[in-house]
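debug: dumping io for the single-chain case to check the tokenizer round-trip. Nothing else runs in this session.
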Amino acid sequence: MENPFKIILLAALLSLGCVASAFQATPAPIHMENGSILYAELSKTIDAKKTKVGDPVTAVLVADVLSHGKIVARHDSKLIGHVTEVQLHTKETPESRLGIVFDKVITKDGEVPFQSLLLAIRPAERAVVDIPNPPSQRSSSAPQPMQTQHYPAQQGNNNHPSRIDSPVDDEMKSRDREMAKNGPTDIDGLSLSSAASGGAQTIISTQRTVKLESGVKIELRVTGQ
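debug: decoded output
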């Protein structure tokens, strides 16, 4: 007959081993530092005519986000948010408003909640267009070189993603100066303003009902977690 004390001891050791394994398997919580800048692009079109407050919005990071030299969210990570305000452009209310807030990023380790402020919106990436030069009057048969128009490249790509090491006070001040110079949006007819209820930024237009196409670039600042 087995010694009951040995059985109890063996069971206790096995239990401790399981607990230790569980602690080792649990990843460290991800911390999005205040002031971190997130560069992303919208996954789907958001049309104020077809959306309502509370509807989900999604975007994809186009640059890695670092904290203390470590990547906390890789490019291609999914951002989740929701619509906070909708107002159509009409004769009675010529100012159309669309408020969006992103508050969650999905990483390989799970969902990470955070609070953010919309800093800027930029036009969707445009393709490179090759425009041939007109035929020369001297020799129409001679091959002509191609003239290429290059549009601004996105913040990161799959091969060489940009990395944003945040927060860095100098970087934040530089971004604020750049925004003051260029404005928070390069999209014709759209601008950013504080939400009607105060706080978060809202996209507004006095020319038409606000519509953000899929691929529009957005810049966010993490304000809490």
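debug: round-trip ok. The first helix runs from residue 4 to 25.
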